[in-house]
């Protein structure tokens, strides 16, 4: 409506009012769509990137496109040529948009209220004084100076942008536009010396304003961004120090070479060393030599992949808090280019966790009923022993099965059967050395691993174990049960797999069962 009214009263007349209004709306719409696409959740003013996107949207796209239909309308209704009309439209709208739109958007977004709320009394007084001095300088340049001093406001503009920020820069542009615009329309000031008509002088003043805007606002936007970043950094540092200084975990800042640059106060409680004494020392000196390669590798991975978290467990070389195991969590710190310039690490005591882990592993490695090795634990030992045979070691595997165990369960119950299984292992275990192990593979089936024992010695050992079962086993109710076992024996082959060895021993056991039981058979 304002566009149509202005065009009717002061422009090309009522005929051009509607077309020019549509073109003006299209210009604003193009800028809005571009800013919305590239500046999601970003203000138009106050950040360098936002300001650059706005400038490119209005100068490189919107006014280039909309100047074409505007020039066509103007060339049809006025004697001005298409090319001259295009230039007049583009310069007038680009300069006017650069000067007015960001300031209006900034005011509509509440930037002035936010500035007034956040700034201290001293900062407000400083801003008023600087703007008052700037007003006096502009007044003198446009109304009192005998020479063209259009360059003189540039230094105060930059000073205000530095000291007051983007609100001060915007206020300076408004002051310059009001005083300079009135003077130019009144045929006063430096632009009155230009030999041109009033339209060209106004356009020259717009060009001057746009240059002042592009000088001060980007500087103010960049400074505003840096202030925000500095504020975020201060808040982050405050949180970091609160965590580091009151946490039971040891917090270390380690540079790219592995040297400690900061250690939290908890270091004296955990590692028995004052934080100031750790600074300048290699972090690897805190680690047991056996675990240093893993810690150094984790440090390098953290530096190579900033943003990711890396965890490594190690044993400390010294501790007054009875720490046996520690966990170090690392994340790289980056500079303004995103390059890693060190690592922030936290060290916590993992001794209790490791103790629980070992306890769980021990539980998992034992058969809950008989105390023999669990199937999984025994198979892992068998796998390791097969690997040893590749170095010339001769070892054997004995697979045994209690004869007629089903009859024990049927006649005496499963409770008595469990007692028999437990007593069976207790009878055999004293006949085995510390290196030899017995495992329960399932039900009444057991296996005995005989390291450094060839087939002949293993056969003799089997008979000794059989002799240990010659006496009956006492069970509940004052009863005694006689048991025997069948066995299959195989010497480990370093070219065979664990499954092949178990299968060979199982076939030998099968033959022992079908040979009358209570006997030993060797694998083929």
UniProtKB/TrEMBL annotation:
Q: How does it sit in the membrane?
A: Multi-pass membrane protein
Enzyme Commission number(s) = 2.7.7.65
Q: Give every PAC domain span.
A: 310-362
Task: Please give the start and end residues of each transmembrane region.
Answer: 15-39, 51-77, 89-107, 127-143, 173-193, 205-224
Keyword Signal recorded: no
UniProt keywords (A-Z) are: Cell membrane, Membrane, Transmembrane, Transmembrane helix
**Protein name (record):** diguanylate cyclase
Species the sequence originates in: Sphingobium xenophagum
């Amino acid at each position: 409506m304002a566009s149509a009214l202005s065009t009717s009263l002061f422009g090309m007349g009522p005929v051009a009012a509607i077309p020019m209004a549509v073109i003006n709306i299209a210009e604003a719409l193009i800028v809005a769509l571009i800013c919305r696409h590239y500046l999601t959740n970003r203000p138009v003013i106050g950040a360098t990137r936002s300001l650059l996107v706005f400038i490119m949207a209005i100068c490189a796209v919107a006014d280039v496109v909309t100047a074409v239909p505007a020039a066509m309308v103007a060339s049809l209704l006025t004697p001005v040529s298409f090319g001259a009309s295009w230039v007049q439209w583009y310069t007038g709208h680009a300069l006017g948009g650069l000067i007015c739109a960001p300031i209006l958007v900034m005011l509509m977004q509440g930037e002035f209220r936010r500035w007034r709320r956040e700034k201290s009394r001293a900062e407000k007084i400083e801003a008023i004084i600087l703007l008052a001095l700037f007003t006096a300088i502009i007044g003198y340049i446009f109304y009192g100076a005998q020479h063209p001093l259009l360059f003189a406001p540039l230094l105060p503009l930059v000073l205000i942008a530095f000291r007051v920020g983007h609100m001060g820069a915007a206020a300076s542009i408004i002051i310059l536009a009001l005083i300079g615009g009135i003077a130019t329309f009144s045929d006063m000031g430096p632009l009155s010396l230009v030999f041109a008509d009033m339209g060209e002088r106004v356009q020259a003043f717009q060009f001057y304003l746009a240059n002042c805007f592009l000088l001060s606002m980007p500087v103010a936007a960049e400074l505003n961004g840096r202030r925000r970043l500095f504020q975020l950094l201060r808040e982050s540092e405050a949180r970091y120090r609160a965590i580091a200084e009151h946490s039971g975990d040891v917090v270390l800042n380690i540079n790219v070479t592995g040297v400690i640059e900061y250690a939290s106060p908890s270091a004296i409680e955990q590692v028995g060393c004052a934080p100031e004494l750790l600074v300048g020392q290699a972090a690897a000196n805190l680690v047991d030599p056996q675990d240093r390669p893993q810690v150094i590798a984790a440090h390098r991975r953290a530096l190579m992949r900033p943003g990711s978290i890396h965890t490594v467990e190690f044993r400390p070389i010294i501790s007054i808090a009875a720490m046996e195991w520690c966990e170090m969590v690392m994340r790289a710190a980056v500079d303004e280019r995103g390059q890693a310039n060190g690592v922030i690490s936290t060290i916590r005591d993992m001794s209790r966790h490791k103790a629980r882990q070992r306890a769980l592993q021990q539980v998992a490695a034992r058969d809950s009923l008989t105390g023999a090795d669990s199937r999984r634990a025994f198979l892992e030992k068998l796998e390791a022993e097969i690997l040893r045979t590749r170095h010339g070691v001769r070892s054997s595997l004995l697979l045994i099965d209690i004869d007629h165990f089903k009859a024990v369960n049927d006649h005496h119950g499963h409770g008595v059967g469990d007692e028999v299984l437990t007593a069976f292992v207790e009878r055999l275990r004293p006949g085995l050395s510390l290196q030899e192990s017995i495992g329960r593979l399932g039900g009444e089936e057991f296996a005995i691993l005989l390291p450094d024992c060839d087939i002949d010695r293993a056969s003799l050992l089997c008979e000794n174990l059989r002799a240990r079962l010659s006496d009956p086993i006492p069970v509940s109710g004052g009863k005694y049960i006689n048991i025997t076992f069948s066995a299959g024996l195989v010497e480990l082959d370093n070219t065979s797999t664990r499954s092949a060895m178990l299968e060979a021993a199982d076939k030998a056991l099968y033959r022992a069962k079908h040979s009358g039981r209570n006997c030993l058979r060797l694998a083929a």
